User: Fold this.
Amino acid sequence: MRLVTFENPVRQPRIGALTPSHRIADLNSACAIYLRDVESESAYQRLADALVPPNMRALFEGGDTSLEAAHKAFDYALHLENDATGPRGEAIFYDEGEVKLKAPIVPKKFLHTAGNFREHHEEATKAGFSHPIMPWIIFFQNVDAIIGHEENVIYPEHLTQELDYELELAVVLKKAGKHFAPEDASDYIGGYLIFNDITARDIQRREMKSGVFSFCKGIDTFCPLGPWIVTADEIGDAHNLAMELRVNGEPRQRSHSSKMSVKIPEILSHYSPMGYSAGDVVSTGTVSGVAAFSGDPKMWYLKPGDVMECEIENIGILRNRVISWQEAYGHKPATLATQETVR
Assistant:
């Protein structure tokens, strides 16, 4: 399944699955009518709310039981008429234009992996970046910075003049766990999605003088995630996926998930002593081609009006536009105090 979080026409947050015809099936409503019509459950709505709740993190907290229930509901819904309704008379299917896609999931923890593609380390070294990108680094993302497909990245011009992109494959955990071995990691993988690790390079260089960085990547809207979660059963080998990031249609990053130095099972196992919650997200590192390490960074850094398209084979395209602070808020930043303090 391709799992989405969306707002229906009355702006209720719901979860769904993308049909082959690119409509969205409301999984909670589909589960309710499946339980009513196929399983003859009298408390079908209450059971549907427990099995397939209209919240993505809650769905993953249900583990395989909830994912299997969602699969059954979706398979049943695919055989219904397009105008089928749920038990309360609500629509089951929506056209993409009728709803607003949101970030598929807002995890409890979002763990970054940096330096996992050696090609990224090599380009940083050639560019004379201030600090080596050692294999491999872990840090946390600010989950409040997460945005979804077609949502805008707001350029805080008063904070940075070097806004960069980083295409990454990310993993969603389907159950809680800790202290597990690489050979057990597949039991924890619920699905995959695309992550664009937006980075303020000038802030990053200053932060790295202390050996750590976080603010440069955690500013509001700097975490595009989506467009949906593709369940693990549909991906097969996650280390056999073509990856490409384009800016205004021009390819900037182009690589392949097979080039990871440390594979996903080892990554998940290595971080597991911190303990995972169901629905947590782990990124796997970016590939070569970022603006900062190009031959002409000033030309390649993001600018208001730029459109980024992050594409990973068998997952889809995550698209986000960069807009100015003034376009987002209708005014210039109220103060430059933050800029002066940081610089």
The chain is about 25% helix and 30% strand. Residues 105-342 form a domain with the Fumarylacetoacetate hydrolase; domain 2 fold (CATH 3.90.850.10).
